[in-house]
């Protein structure tokens, strides 16, 4: 039930956010004077009324509302006026024993302005309220914004909960909480289902909803970075057997299909999103925890809710198929125009679906920047509109099928700085079995496998500064480096895959031109982390090896005595070692042929 069904008339959810002059923050107010007890006659002890009143399941109290100062506000009517017996001046912002009132939601529309709070008169910054985190962003179709309400808004909370559609994918997803120290993998899907107002004319109106846009979002265990891997819908792959839940509660196994388009992993033969999740897991070797799915309406409603998404095109566009018409340069697009931009496939690049994927990545990067912008996060109207649009657009698995769970996820995603979010596309080549190019594609295994390993090993594709225990990176890693032919190192296998010491030796000698290296076989004991032991007078050699392998300062172990003669450093490959050339920390080194977009940078579509 939402606010409009509580006997209060037609109220825009955005109007329920009002400025609290004591904190300088907006707060969600859903006062209902018709159902609240009368206000107290005196300003009793802070919190007394809250203790006596019934508990609100979202964390507040029904009846009176406790302000930032600890006092309890009397209820207001629809216009924001306080009842006469409470001492409030009609139409104004009266005071009580507890301090100045938070203005009612309608008085803000009438132009009433609250005077500066005492803290501002003294030149101090207003105290920030913990309620500022009541709304948190997440990305839907990488910008999937969700709302984490934290107090006093139970009806609105329930209303948003009711907007969310869920699918029980059984064992395909993880039902666990978002534990610290563990990565999160979410399959984001945009379907080609044409339901919704104005969407019937976009071709194939009878589509059951195939996996048209697919992004595997990997959020690192330490929440410093994320990788968004786009999987082409026309990729020829194997779809495994998958269990689905039918309407009667029975479980049905849908047989797998070898050598078929990836997009049929959803919708075809009754496959649910769990089938797409299993297909991604078989393809990448990465366990997919959850899915988020949206149709055409999501692009239109989310882009409109943020007030438009800034994009750039390198040349003029006039596409009769998608109906996109833009002049060269920068534009702010929303609604139908935004949908046309992400749907066009003949306006950019080769005109293939791979070129469209790059345009979609650029759009999502821009949407993400807009979601995180001050203009959005400081606007109660935009936040309320986003909450409505995102929850209505989303279909998710039951493991995250509530505002509470989506709020938990939002808090984790909000920790990632956009500059450390990298979009990339699964490397593929044209299908040699097709007579026409750019119809279907197959995996480019030599280029794709390192990306799969990066995701499996939680390796970032962007440069991320990490804090290390003990030695400082500035002290250890910065300084002169030895020439490759001066590096002496003995290599031991301390838990890495069989043959790692020999492959590392080959890589050192051939790729890095460091001939003074030796394979010493197995270490005395296994170790979780790769380490490099060196003497004080070998620091320049250690920096060279650290740069080659992406070793952090904590992986370098400095001895107490200088090396004598031809004494070599000791490199022990631990269980975290993923192979020659794969950095152990810092960004993965992708080949220049692998497409890559960083979320904090605007790129013009070409």
Report on this model:
The strands form 11 sheets. Strands 9-22-17-10-11-12-23-31 form an 8-stranded mixed beta sheet, with helices on both faces. Strands 27-26-30-28-29 form a 5-stranded mixed beta sheet, covered by helices on one side. It has a two-stranded antiparallel ribbon with strand order 1-2. The protein has 3 domains: 1-128, no CATH class; 146-456, LCP protein (Aminopeptidase, 3-Layer(aba) Sandwich); 473-573, 2-Layer Sandwich (Alpha-Beta Plaits). It contains 14 helices and 31 strands. The protein is an alpha+beta fold and 606 residues long. The chain is globular and about 70 Å long. Helix 5 (296-305) crosses helix 6 and helix 5 (296-305) packs antiparallel against helix 9 (380-393).
Briefly say what this structure is.
This protein is an alpha+beta fold and 606 residues long.
Number of domains: 3
And the CATH topology of the largest domain?
A: Aminopeptidase
- % residues in beta strands: 15-25%
Query: Can you count the helices?
Result: 14
Supply Rg: 29 Å
What kind of assembly state do the chains in view correspond to?
Answer: single chain
Span between N and C termini? 47 Å
Roughly how much helix do the residues carry, as a percent range? 10-25%
CATH superfamily of the largest domain, by name, is LCP protein
Calculate the mean pLDDT score and round it: 76
Major β-sheet profile: 8 strands, mixed
**Helices and strands: which structural class?**
alpha+beta
- Low-confidence segments, given as residue ranges, are 1-14, 31-152, 199-203, 467-474
Number of strands: 31
CATH class annotation of the largest domain: Alpha Beta
Q: What overall form do the CA principal axes indicate?
A: globular
- Placed side by side, the strands forming the largest sheet appear as 9-22-17-10-11-12-23-31
Task: Examine the secondary-structure arrangement and name the CATH architecture of the largest domain.
Answer: 3-Layer(aba) Sandwich
